[in-house]
């Protein structure tokens, strides 16, 4: 980055001479790592933007409320009872089931997403743009609708491998989207240089491309893993027991019993392990650059004879992830006829779902911004700790978050019980990781030198942040809001427990009908949820392309 050589020294107040000892070049300012500006005619160093750190700390502490609730229950229960509830064969079975699900599903999602991203972004695959959109579209289908479709098509589909199959087709777009976006932004000059020294295509991909995808892969994998730990409806349909399904069963039978809270404590431990693995693999490498790099796109690799075999991958994936749900929903709509379209009930559920999704998405994105900023700009032990606090709640099932807020509101702030404020806070806590992942990746690609240069030219820290990093990360913020809104539309347990009386969202209506084995009456709600989610999914796709300047 060039220095600001044209900037001349400012004389000290009341004097006429230069003060070289008070001057720094822009390069020196960038190396200092601190925001700077001109105050009273002098170059002065300012403290780091403390209000951002304070906001991140407050959000992180607030996100610990569900965990504090679990610990409080454990203290009240006593160690003897806690050890008896945790160290028992049933917990071991649930732990094995949950770990196998994560260990099998996440690597499959990584391989599938990277392969699809490379085919759609870097190869001569016929209809690459169409397949790219179809690889994102499964996000529009709620996970429990995927499971509903598969179980009605194949009634005997149960167990671990059924869970892995449905989990992969439901959640792989969370990995595909950031990987494809990262591939679009890579500077092709790096790969050309590697090829020029004699590296073959596979070695270029392994040694040059894949390391640059590490941040996207780690973030997406963490997001998929957290969803696997917290998912409930998907595994209920296929009768596969995980910690989440067991926790919900315990809460439904004893409302606020210690057994469910101890299961939730084990689930939090699993989240810590997952977060630690992501931190170790991610590293602290720099992923931003100053300047736009090469002003050209990467030349696509010709597939030649491999075109047909490579085409089978997106075709089969689309059939499994989109074909099965749409065929199943269509079949039940035809079987139910016009009687299943109760427009008064559907209209009420649609309006309430839209309002909750938009309000919750905005709140979660605003709450995630401070943590995303310090995660990239000020990494360190404190940042890792605060970031971990935000991910903890993402691993908890909605019923745990809901019961924690129920206990707090009933015992401390009764007027807030079952109010709009409480349900929006629950959404912000539950879906904060979605907004944080998108914002973090976007801020990582906004050069910090621009922020420091704005501060060195006299702008206040807030104005410097707004004019550079926040504006450059706006596409990531929009993508994060869309991801949060998708999650809120599909949320069930927390909405049932915290929403004001009379609330009936699309997910609640779908679950009520499907629970009564009335699959035909549930089909309209499933179709509307998909139709509502498609525009948001399209927004994710478009924003990911805009981030690459396409």
From TrEMBL:
<keyword id="KW-0472">Membrane</keyword>
<feature type="transmembrane region" description="Helical">
    <location>
        <begin position="213"/>
        <end position="238"/>
    </location>
</feature>
<feature type="transmembrane region" description="Helical">
    <location>
        <begin position="258"/>
        <end position="281"/>
    </location>
</feature>
<keyword id="KW-1003">Cell membrane</keyword>
<dbReference type="Pfam" id="PF00528">
    <property type="entry name" value="BPD_transp_1"/>
</dbReference>
<feature type="transmembrane region" description="Helical">
    <location>
        <begin position="306"/>
        <end position="334"/>
    </location>
</feature>
<feature type="transmembrane region" description="Helical">
    <location>
        <begin position="522"/>
        <end position="542"/>
    </location>
</feature>
<keyword id="KW-0813">Transport</keyword>
<feature type="transmembrane region" description="Helical">
    <location>
        <begin position="51"/>
        <end position="74"/>
    </location>
</feature>
<feature type="transmembrane region" description="Helical">
    <location>
        <begin position="469"/>
        <end position="489"/>
    </location>
</feature>
<dbReference type="InterPro" id="IPR000515">
    <property type="entry name" value="MetI-like"/>
</dbReference>
<feature type="transmembrane region" description="Helical">
    <location>
        <begin position="94"/>
        <end position="118"/>
    </location>
</feature>
<dbReference type="GO" id="GO:0055085">
    <property type="term" value="P:transmembrane transport"/>
</dbReference>
<feature type="transmembrane region" description="Helical">
    <location>
        <begin position="388"/>
        <end position="410"/>
    </location>
</feature>
<keyword id="KW-1133">Transmembrane helix</keyword>
<dbReference type="InterPro" id="IPR035906">
    <property type="entry name" value="MetI-like_sf"/>
</dbReference>
<feature type="transmembrane region" description="Helical">
    <location>
        <begin position="354"/>
        <end position="376"/>
    </location>
</feature>
<protein>
    <submittedName>
        <fullName>Iron ABC transporter permease</fullName>
    </submittedName>
</protein>
<keyword id="KW-0812">Transmembrane</keyword>
<feature type="transmembrane region" description="Helical">
    <location>
        <begin position="416"/>
        <end position="437"/>
    </location>
</feature>
<comment type="similarity">
    <text>Belongs to the binding-protein-dependent transport system permease family.</text>
</comment>
<dbReference type="GO" id="GO:0005886">
    <property type="term" value="C:plasma membrane"/>
</dbReference>
<feature type="domain" description="ABC transmembrane type-1">
    <location>
        <begin position="95"/>
        <end position="281"/>
    </location>
</feature>
<feature type="domain" description="ABC transmembrane type-1">
    <location>
        <begin position="350"/>
        <end position="540"/>
    </location>
</feature>
<keyword id="KW-0997">Cell inner membrane</keyword>
<feature type="transmembrane region" description="Helical">
    <location>
        <begin position="157"/>
        <end position="177"/>
    </location>
</feature>
<feature type="transmembrane region" description="Helical">
    <location>
        <begin position="130"/>
        <end position="151"/>
    </location>
</feature>
């Amino acid at each position: 980055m060039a220095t600001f050589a044209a900037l001349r020294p400012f004389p000290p107040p009341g004097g006429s001479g230069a003060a070289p000892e008070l001057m720094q070049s822009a390069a020196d300012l960038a190396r200092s790592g601190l925001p700077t500006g001109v105050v009273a005619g002098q170059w002065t160093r300012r403290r780091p933007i403390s209000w951002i750190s304070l906001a991140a700390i407050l959000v992180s502490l607030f996100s610990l409320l569900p965990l504090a609730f679990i610990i409080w229950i454990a203290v009240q229960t006593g160690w003897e009872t806690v050890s008896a509830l945790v160290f028992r064969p049933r917990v071991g079975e649930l732990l094995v089931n949950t770990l196998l699900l994560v260990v099998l599903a996440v690597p499959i999602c990584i391989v599938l997403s990277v392969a699809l991203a490379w085919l759609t972004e870097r190869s001569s695959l016929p209809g690459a743009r169409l397949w790219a959109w179809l690889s994102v579209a499964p996000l529009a289908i709620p996970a429990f609708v995927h499971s509903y479709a598969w179980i009605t098509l194949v009634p005997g589909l149960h167990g671990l491998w059924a869970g892995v199959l449905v989990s992969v087709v439901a959640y792989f777009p969370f990995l595909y989207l950031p990987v494809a976006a990262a591939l679009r932004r890579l500077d092709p000059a790096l790969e050309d240089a590697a090829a020029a020294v004699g590296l073959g295509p596979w070695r270029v991909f392994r040694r040059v491309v894949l390391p640059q995808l590490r941040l996207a892969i780690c973030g997406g994998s963490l997001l998929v893993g957290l969803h696997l730990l917290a998912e409930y409806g998907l595994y209920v349909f296929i009768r596969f027991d995980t910690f989440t399904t067991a926790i919900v069963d315990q809460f439904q039978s004893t409302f606020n019993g210690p057994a469910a809270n101890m299961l939730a404590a084990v689930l939090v431990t699993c989240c810590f392990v997952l977060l630690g693995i992501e931190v170790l693999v991610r590293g602290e490498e720099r992923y931003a650059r100053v300047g736009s790099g090469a002003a050209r796109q990467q030349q696509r690799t010709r597939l030649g004879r491999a075109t047909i075999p490579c085409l089978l991958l997106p075709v089969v994936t689309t059939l499994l992830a989109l074909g099965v749900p749409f065929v199943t929903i269509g079949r039940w709509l035809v079987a139910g006829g016009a009687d299943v379209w109760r427009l008064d009930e559907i209209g009420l559920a649609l309006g309430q779902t839209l309002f909750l999704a938009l309000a919750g998405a905005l709140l979660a994105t605003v709450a995630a911004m401070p943590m995303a900023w310090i995660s990239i700009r000020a990494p360190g032990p404190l940042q890792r700790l605060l970031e971990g606090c935000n991910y903890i709640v993402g691993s908890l099932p909605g019923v745990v978050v809901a019961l924690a807020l129920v206990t707090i509101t009933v015992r401390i702030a009764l007027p807030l019980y079952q109010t709009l404020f409480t349900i929006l806070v629950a959404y912000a806590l539950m879906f904060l990781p979605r907004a944080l992942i998108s914002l973090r990746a976007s801020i990582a690609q906004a050069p910090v030198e621009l922020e420091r240069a704005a501060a060195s030219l006299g702008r206040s820290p807030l104005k410097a942040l707004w004019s550079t990093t926040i504006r450059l990360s706006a596409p990531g913020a929009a993508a994060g809001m869309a991801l949060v809104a998708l999650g809120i539309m599909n949320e069930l347990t927390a909405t049932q427990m915290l929403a004001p009386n009379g609330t009936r969202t699309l997910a609640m209506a779908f679950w009520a009908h499907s629970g009564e084995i009335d699959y035909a009456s549930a089909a309209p709600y499933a179709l509307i949820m998909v139709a509502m989610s498609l525009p948001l999914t399209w927004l994710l796709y478009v924003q990911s392309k805009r981030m690459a300047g396409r």
